[in-house]
Amino acid sequence: MHLIMEGKDVVGLAQTGTGKTAAFLLPTIHKTLRQPGRQTLILTPTRELAIQIEQELRSLTPKMHLYSTVCVGGMNIRPQIMGLRRKNHFIIGTPGRVQDLLDRGHIKPGAITTVILDEADRMLDMGFIHDIKKILKDVPTERETLFFSATMSKSIEGLIHEFLRDPITISIKKNDVTSSITQDVIRYEHHNKFDTLVANLKKSEFSRVIVFGAMKHSVEKLSQELVASGIKADAIHGNKSHGQRQRALSSFKTGRVQVLVATDVAARGIHVDDVSHVINYDLPNTYEDYVHRIGRTGRGSKRGQALTFVPA
Fold this sequence. Notes:
By secondary structure, this protein is α/β, with parallel strands linked by helices.
């Protein structure tokens, strides 16, 4: 259980269009690939949004053998019941229909490890509060809960207080994230992931780039391989002394190096202007990490690009 518990509960104050769908799907996909037994339930206010989230999930997971079913009202329930007969990694639906399928025994609450409530304020406005409460009561308490809302009302605060454990609150204002940052994915074949990175870094627009890796040793190795490929790069991670980190940061700020390869922890304090690109070479573990990473670009009045490597 402790593996699931590692993921903290998160409250994201985010308006529609802040790129949050990819931000919550990417870490969840990553965890599911590592632990195929996971099952994520995503609740949305409308049928259209549920379908849109599933389309985004499909585009991020080609050939990954991750299965999903959309469970929404206003559509024939039979195909949804058929879809739920196989093992689903993601169930995406509206609260009324999900509750109906739980009552009929087609969705097994005990199998759900993560619940994501998207646009919670709209779900409450549409009268779904009782369904949401009932669903959250049915799902095991040792789940991970991610909660997104554009506003914070008393009833939403009540829901958070009742169903989330020590949540971390992240506020993502629309103009903070998307208006200045373009988010996209880079597809790669497993054998040429590194070559794909190098090819991109050699393009002139990649002028000042932070590349995120998962582990201290992999970040160090990646920076050395980039240098060997003729790219001016340095690394910043927890195994380096304070002096070494400051030197790497200084080289990056002054433009002596084009690329800074970093771990999430080491990058927390990096505030460098004119970062043209942030590249998620390894997927982030949590929604919070993703938001922190992409926030390193597009600062002030500058535009930036966040690119995430996804297997083809």
